[in-house]
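REQUEST
  id: r-88c1
  op: predict_structure
  target: Flagellar basal body P-ring biosynthesis protein FlgA
  payload:
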Amino acid sequence: MTSVTPIAYQHVAYRIILCSIVVATFFDSATANAQSGSFVPVRRSAPRTVSVDAETAWTFRMKQDVVLSSPIVRLGDIIVPLDPNLPQWSRLSRASVGLLPVDGTAMRIDRERLAKLIVRAEATPHAILWVGGESTSIRYLPSAEESQQDTGEPALGHSTIRQTSYHPRIETAATAVPQAALPPEFANRVIAWIEQAIARGDRDLLKRYQLIIDPQQPAMLSLESARGIEQAHFLSPIQEGKCSLYVKSRGLNAAVEATMIAELKENPLAVTTANNLRPGVRIGASDLRTLPIEPENWEDSFYTDPSELIGTETKSYLRKDEPIRIGDVGKPTLIRRGDLLEVRVVNGSISVTTNAKAQGDGAESDLIEIETLDPRKRLIARVVQSGLVEIVTRSPRTR
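RESPONSE
  id: r-88c1
  status: 200
  body:
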């Protein structure tokens, strides 16, 4: 049996201790790396992208010459969405745009700056469309309450944050603010809404009169937030000239009422037929009536007096309610082609009568061609009355 020396036992013990240290060190390192995550693969999610429909767009209209009672300018103070149901507007309208100089100096803001603010506030790259002016002027005008506080009079017991408000017109004894006006494009749209509302109540009124509304009048400013006109009627008698017009519109938050000045101009009247008339019809008083014609459709060839047409004959097809022009009617036809005629030949005091056949149509005093029966000879005669023509010859001269 082989004997083992103490030195051999020492070498084996050293190896066992060394292996234990290596193994322990490995497990400690693996545990630490696992806890730190350096050996654990991590899946990174793909970056999220926000896609916007190509048809997604917001349309805003910029207010003009805004006067605020607070130096803080908010988005809702200077623009109005054309879509009153825009869901994001309640939050967007409170976004701050900037501060106004407290000395009343006007500040101008353009569309580009507001568009960037809208995109940044919404964090979505919507397409933004505009109507109205390219920029607007804003100025700060403190209210009467703030002016009293500035002069040292007692203030309220606690401070409050006042919401900015938009004043379309403000005039004080010390300062007169220039009157603003609606953008021309929006003003024309409001006038078109007013005309539609008037037509709903009286369809023929705008046919009888031309409506003229000055878009620069102060009452138009109160319709800045209008989204349609519900009512429009005249407060004064309807007649040519200036009249008072009451308007009630649908606003963003509530109904808006205004009283403005409108001018009525009576449209010219033209004679028309009450029914369709074919050519060759003798016109009577019951066949005629007058209708107003818009100035842009008026022609100088229209008849305006019905008495001029009574007893005349249609020369072309006349449609109902169409204005009658010069040339559409004429003198009644007394003789028609193929009629047998009595021909009266007059030579001085001698008169000879014969028969002939008409070769054409003719009214009173018209010259027509006739053909005698025996012998057959073509002559020119003047129409005297129905069935009678006349030929006048000169008496022979004697020397």
